[in-house]
Amino acid sequence: MRAILMFLVAALITFPGRATAEDIFVDVELVLAVDVSRSMTPRELGIQRAGYAAALTSPDVLAAIQSGPHGRVAITYVEWAGSLSQRTVVEWTLVATPADAEALASRITAHFDNALRRTSISGAIDHAATLFEGNGFRSLRRVIDVSGDGPNNQGRPVTSARNAAVAQGIVINGLPLMTKEGLGAQWHLDDLDLYYQDCVIGGPAAFVIPVVNWAHFPDAVRQKLVLELVGLPPTRIVPVQSREPYDCLVGEKIWEEFINWPD
Predict the structure, then answer these.
(1) In terms of Cα–Cα distance, which of 109, 34, 106, 27 is closest to 74?
(2) Quick one: average pLDDT of 110-118?
């Protein structure tokens, strides 16, 4: 018991000045940062929202939410594209019961907006990192959950944004969308999962769960949410073969080639 108390005190000291008398203690503060760049088709955008809604109300995710010491989490749902294109679909919401999860899911699927231009994962991370302070909640784990179908091609380098967020004690997990249905084939990376692994995710136990078929999207989101909410890495990790570090500026280089193509 003494060791647990010492750990909690040390963890609270890590985030000085964050708590107020009105803050609600939760087990996790989770930002769902979802790609809605122009390369996504309307069908794909619909699948994403429906998939997150289904996952949040699944028995596995509800059990994960209720498994923590407080039995509740705080979640916000944000869509992103370019470096200045982020929109909050659902503000910070307390989720502790099936009714809470159903209400959150219904708000995610209540509206449908058109896609936005460009892809700035760094902008999404920078924006998401600002959402924790003063959100009315407090926890020992702050997580940004980034999904996307291509590499960063606008804003500052994604590794700079990743490193800044991790330095604040934030964990970043990734859901690379490796389907080929969308527009803009020039942005497709066959090894987008490796790009996310080397350039996007960060923090203790950070992980990547790739989606190669839209039919698998709801299950991938459900698995990812369970792992994030209980604070565990995937149980089955495929060893990475020895290779050169990924070029984390590949998206910017593709963009430069694209805008310099002859008419």
Answers:
(1) 27
(2) 68
CA distance 55 to 195: 25
In the numeric block, the tokens 């590499």 are attached to 151
- Name the maximum alpha-carbon separation found in the chain: 70
Helix (H) or strand (E) holding 220: helix 217-230
* End-to-end Cα spacing for the chain: 69
Give the pLDDT band of residue 10 (cuts 50, 70, 90): very low
Residue 56 neighbours by CB distance under 10 Å: 23
Burial of 15 from C-beta contacts in 10 A (0-12 / 13-18 / 19+): middle
Can you give the pTM of this predicted structure? 0.86
1, burial (CB in 10 Å: exposed 0-12, middle 13-18, buried 19+):
exposed
Average pLDDT for the chain: 85
Q: Count how many residues are written for the chain.
A: 263
Q: What is the pLDDT of residue 231?
A: 78
Q: How many CA atoms lie within 13 A of 139 on its CB side?
A: 27
Which residues make Cβ contacts (< 8 Å) with residue 189, sequence separation at least 6?
A: 150, 151, 178, 195, 250
Provide the CB-side half-sphere exposure for 77 (13 A, CA): 24
